[in-house]
Design a protein that fits this description.
Elements lengths: L16 H4 L15 E2 L4 E3 L5 E4 L9 E5 L4 E4 L5 E4 L6 E10 L10 E2 L2 E2 L2 E9 L5 H4 L6 E11 L7 H4 L11 E4 L16 E6 L10 E13 H10 L29 E3 L17 H17 L1
Parallel strand pairs: 1-8, 2-15, 11-14
Antiparallel strand pairs: 3-6, 4-5, 4-12, 5-7, 6-7, 7-10, 8-9, 10-11, 13-14, 13-15
């Protein structure tokens, strides 16, 4: 997860971040992100749908899309909050950004039963009691991040076009473009928002602060192959006038152990199947139900 408030990842190899940022060293903390989500979870019936205030309307003003050399970020301004669903307070939505792989490699940060999705989107929210993100990073629950896997179909996602149509304007590091606000809920799998996983973790870039309540949604966002290619092939980590331009690819951190952390499934989580207090069900259910959901998504287009 990238935050404009925080130091840029350097060096570029995530395994070496601990050399420059001790808090990123996986042996100095047991709440690092991302993780692999597997069947070692229990259902928590108290985890109902989150309340996404202001996500269903277009906010006033303009949003800003930015290539910061590490990701593409959409700064969304004020007007949206996240609460409920077991979160310890009200959180203000501040930005969203993306992680991806390469033309021939997937690039989600979290994995499900060892499977890495093509992309992952993070909606970053800051606890309302904090004046800024820096203060929130000192609170173990200072940030609430909504993570959405992104999978691929053949048809364009017209709602995702609000972002993908602007990507050519931010192809190079440092470039920014204005985006007319749109209902953020239109990007999300709104029929399946009660199905998610929950755990305590960290930022996935330096300073790797262990200050994040993670909510990972089961049902992906679907975009087209051409929309995916815009990220994997047409975004660069260097400035436009650089002697040698470098594609921005594989901007994800490696998976970390869960150690003793509890990873919970919401009461409506269904792709892996579960009974209260019991390990989740057999992995083949993942692919079977994904096919059903995907078919439904295509039909609704």
């Amino acid at each position: 997860m990238f935050l404009s408030c925080c130091a840029a990842p350097s060096p570029s190899d995530p395994y070496a971040w601990g050399d420059s940022f001790p808090s990123c060293h996986p042996l100095l903390g047991r709440h690092h992100s991302p993780i692999n989500v597997d069947r070692h979870m229990v259902r928590n019936d108290s985890l109902g749908p989150l309340h996404l205030e202001g996500f269903d309307v277009s906010q006033p003003g303009h949003w800003t899309l930015e290539n910061d050399g590490h990701s593409v970020l959409l700064q969304v301004g004020s007007g949206m909050t996240v609460s409920g669903g077991g979160l310890p307070g009200v959180y203000h939505t501040i930005q969203l950004h993306f992680h991806w792989g390469a033309p021939a490699a997937n690039g989600s940060e979290h994995t499900v039963d060892g499977r890495r999705y093509p992309m992952e989107m993070h909606v970053v929210n800051m606890k309302s009691i904090h004046p800024n993100v820096s203060a929130a990073l000192d609170d173990p629950t200072g940030l609430a991040v909504l993570g959405f896997f992104i999978d691929v179909v053949y048809a364009d996602n017209v709602h995702f076009g609000h972002i993908s149509q602007k990507l050519s304007s931010v192809a190079y590091r440092g470039q920014m473009a204005k985006v007319k606000p749109f209902p953020l809920l239109s990007l999300l799998p709104k029929l399946n928002m009660s199905q998610y996983y929950r755990y305590s973790g960290s930022l996935t870039t330096p300073p790797c602060s262990q200050a994040v309540v993670w909510t990972l949604y089961e049902v992906p966002i679907y975009i087209s192959w051409s929309q995916l290619a815009q990220f994997t092939s047409q975004i660069f980590s260097t400035e436009e006038d650089a002697e040698q331009v470098t594609p921005l690819q594989n901007n994800f951190r490696h998976v970390h152990p869960t150690f003793s952390r509890t990873v919970s499934a919401s009461r409506d989580a269904g792709l892996l199947g579960a009974t209260a207090g019991q390990p989740l069900g057999p992995a083949p259910a993942v692919f079977l139900l994904q096919t059903v959901v995907l078919g439904s998504f295509i039909f609704k287009l």
